[in-house]
């Protein structure tokens, strides 16, 4: 087992990893920018190292500074969390080249799945179902027109690199394909330094379903059921559930069997999440995230497993030690992402938190680095907390979530707490009939745009 783990991240995920390390008896090192000198993950760390000024490229994306911090503190492993360098294959290679363990997948798998075209090609070879679309990169407008005519409108033009909804444009008819192709390429180039795009059929009412997996690289692969991440605004997830209100146990097992067989075939190691669109009883692969997901707590709640602990064990060379038959899913879990944003305009609202009260009670979990008096800086992602509830079934989970949201207080900055209260009281959410397009319409109904 590792002697010391450096956590190459900040905020709630840094705290999450820190806590897992402490329970395993492993000292951890926090890194931080100058803007995060008083952050909770720094205050609770066994050791901390400042790695640069506030801008991410000079701190949390500064690979030489992070590696230096690991070496000078005697860490023998690095956990990247999510975001930042977590899916950077070059960083994973650098970590291993310096004699340290990267707590995540092998660099070749990060690289393979980080390029969405390569990922789709691989999954097609492994008989994983795909969304109809181009076989690879669409290199010209003429090719885009031909593929769109073949699969039928509407179509989605997507960046091969990156994520988060950037470099994605819909063309509803032949008149719109040129603008969608050009704009998607320009956004992809600006955001990821890579203007490669591909084309997929745009589904009109899909669910966004993802499957959490763990693999030890030696042939043992298990899944922990699905998460429904269909509540999205501009391709950014806002609320997640485990399991999905739309899936049957048979569909879950069918998807799980396909996914675990595919990852076993490529020798995958550590945690991963495969994302699918689901419509009319059919699954279609869209991408794989080779890291811990923001929404991993809902899986932990229904499966009774510490995914971070498992990541650390696998990276240390330990076998998985259990099979699919040992996984028991129980109850229902829901997670709300609480962002420091105006709940009507969705503009980020950094500032000082003057008072903070987290909800508690049976089946309630809050992952957050907030505290009364802390400063939410303007330099990073606006998510400041995750509220997770678990109950025996979905109606009970919704009731528990409503109670917990009413208890949750963040004073001094605006947050999306009021929006979550509105969402869970909506009849369509309670019925579980929403799709990935539902939240955009819901927000438009209840939050008229500012003048």
Could you walk me through the main structural features you see in this protein, from its secondary elements to its overall organization?
With 451 residues, the protein is α+β, with helices and mostly antiparallel strands. It is built from 15 helices and 20 strands. It has 3 domains: 5-103, 3-Layer(aba) Sandwich (Rossmann fold); 132-201, ATP-grasp fold, A domain (Dna Ligase, domain 1, 2-Layer Sandwich), CATH 3.30.1490; 207-446, D-amino Acid Aminotransferase, Chain A, domain 1 (2-Layer Sandwich), CATH 3.30.470.20. The strands form 5 sheets. An 8-stranded antiparallel sheet has the order 13-12-9-10-11-14-19-17, with helices on both faces. A 5-stranded parallel sheet has the order 3-2-1-4-5. Strand 10 (221-233) and strand 11 form a beta hairpin.
H/I helix tally = 15
CATH architecture group name of the largest domain: 2-Layer Sandwich
By CATH reckoning, the class of the largest domain would read Alpha Beta
- Rg on CA atoms, Å: 21 Å
Gross geometry: globular
Number of domains: 3
Kindly report the name of the CATH homologous superfamily of the largest domain: ATP-grasp fold, B domain
Instruction: Give the fraction of residues assigned to helices.
Output: 25-40%
| Content of β-strand | 25-35%
Q: Order of strands in the sheet with the most strands?
A: 13-12-9-10-11-14-19-17
